[in-house]
Amino acid sequence: MLSYSRRMWEPRSLRVLVDLDGVLADFEDQFLNKYREAFPNEEFVKLEDRKGFYVSDQYENIRPDLKTKAMEVISRQGFFLGMATISGSIHAVKEIASMDNMHGWKNILEKAGPID
């Protein structure tokens, strides 16, 4: 039997999780740029040819040792910090954070500044 701690008509806070790579930040572009910078003479996958979730698996399909090289690039210090934001993503998160019942987002809004 299900039990509810609140009545269905009472307002509740929402919990929204926002992923970083591929949602707010451009993982694919960052990876390709850093991979080609680190391994300029190796084969690579063009952005338009990227398939699947794990970039390292696609590189392994080209040649097994390229998986290790792909993982090396992703594991480098600062890799995720250097990603460019995806157009409109920050604005969208600010919009969500400013909605009613979005508790816990106050610090995000203060650091991000006004919605453009």
The succession of helices and strands, N to C, reads HHHHH
Q: Which value, in Å, is the CA radius of gyration?
A: 20 Å
Summed over residues and divided by their number, the pLDDT gives a mean of: 82
Report the major sheet. none
Please work out how many helical segments DSSP would assign. 5
**Head-to-tail CA distance between termini:** 47 Å
Poorly predicted runs: none
Helix content: 40-55%
Outline type: elongated
Approximately what portion of the residues adopt beta-strand conformation? under 5%
Structural class determined from secondary elements = mainly alpha
Description:
The chain is mainly α and 116 residues long. The protein has five helices and no strands. The chain has helices at 27-38, 55-62, 64-75, 89-97, 106-112. It is elongated, with a radius of gyration of 20 Å. The model has no long low-confidence stretch (mean pLDDT 82).
Helix/strand layout:
Elements: H1 27-38, H2 55-62, H3 64-75, H4 89-97, H5 106-112
Helix pairs in contact: 1-3, 2-3
Descriptive tags:
single chain, about 120 residues, mainly alpha, 5 helices, elongated
